[in-house]
From TrEMBL:
Site (described: Lowers pKa of active site Tyr): K81
CDD domains in the cross-refs: AKR_CeZK1290-like
Assigned keywords, A-Z: Oxidoreductase
Active site residues of this protein: Y56
MF terms in GO: oxidoreductase activity
Domain NADP-dependent oxidoreductase positions: 35-272
Family the UniProt entry places it in: Belongs to the aldo/keto reductase family.
Residues involved in substrate binding: H114
The protein's name in its UniProt record: NADP-dependent oxidoreductase domain-containing protein
Coiled-coil residue windows: none
UniProt cross-references to Gene3D superfamilies, sorted A to Z: NADP-dependent oxidoreductase domain
Source taxon at top rank: Eukaryota
Keyword Oxidoreductase attributed: yes
Length: 286
């Protein structure tokens, strides 16, 4: 029997009433895409949430995998991200529509600004460019091309400025989140503002899997270190998107709903924060 036959992933409500599956499958550049793995995740593991970005250069291939899976579009949650080289009102609208065309989709469930700093050369501040770009996303949202809009790697000051400059508060903020990097202040802010907090790199690119505390807890529950870290993230209410191109790992990463970590173990994992980043650090972006 496939996992998909008996797995139904919990969902998290957005401020506009939509619900995003709390567990998804991420993709990435530099070998972070596998056609067979995507089809397997959708058809055999019950995955209904796929995360990608223009930056990953796999939009067309991902679109083909989604079609081959045979899963109805209405059952899927597809997130894409706008690259900072496409910031600005006109460029952002064109990039989103081009991405839809590349993936052979009529809409995205969630479309994110990928980074708080623009790569466009212009005589304006990052804040002004973010506001101009967000205005394009607001229009795409109102037009139904994007069912929800959000940001990625934004810090509190970026979100505060966007709230002052624009009319739609981001539905989601997607940032690096794992036991070594816990943005608790940012998470608290997002939750107060009704912004869903989403975490990528939940395994810290494998670094957390060798941690003695994680290994000890994994042994206690009879689960793998990866499952413990993903469970910890989900149990903290974080929408979590582990990446893998290996069928065995994808299946393993989906088997995190049949057990609950005790409060003491949640606290032990919570104590591992040391501030390290395994990806980009946007803390000092103005």
């Amino acid at each position: 029997m496939t996992l998909a036959a008996h797995l139904s992933f919990p969902k998290v409500p957005l401020s506009n009433g939509l619900q995003i599956p709390i567990l998804g499958l991420g993709t990435s550049h530099d070998g972070g895409f596998s056609h067979d793995a995507i089809v397997y995740a959708l058809t055999e593991c019950g995955v209904r949430h796929i995360d990608t970005a223009k930056r990953y250069s796999c939009e067309e291939k991902l679109g083909k995998a989604i079609i081959e899976s045979g899963i109805p579009r209405s059952d899927l949650w597809v997130t894409n991200k706008l690259w900072p080289g496409d910031y600005g009102y006109k460029a952002a609208k064109k990039a989103c529509l081009d991405s839809c065309s590349q993936m052979r989709l009529h809409y995205f469930d969630l479309y994110l600004m990928h980074w708080p700093e623009s790569l466009q050369s212009c005589n304006c501040s990052n804040r002004e460019m973010r506001a101009e770009t967000w205005r394009a996303l607001e229009e795409l949202y109102k037009e139904g091309v994007c069912r929800a809009i959000g940001v990625s790697n934004f810090q509190v000051h970026h979100l505060e400025e966007l709230k002052e400059d624009c009319s739609v508060v981001p539905h989601v903020n997607q940032v690096e989140y794992h036991p070594f990097q816990q943005s608790n202040q940012l998470m608290g802010y997002c939750r107060r503002e009704g912004i869903v907090f989403e975490g990528y790199s939940p395994l810290a690119k494998g670094q957390v899997l060798r941690n003695p505390t994680v290994l000890q807890i994994a042994e206690k529950y009879g689960h793998t270190p990866a499952q413990i870290c993903i469970r910890w993230s989900i149990q903290n209410g974080v929408v979590t998107i582990p990446k893998s191109t290996k069928k065995k790992r994808i299946r393993e990463n989906c088997q995190v709903f049949g057990f609950q970590l005790e409060e003491s173990d949640m606290a032990a994992l919570g104590s591992l924060h040391d501030g390290r980043h395994v990806t980009w650090d946007s803390t000092h972006v103005e």
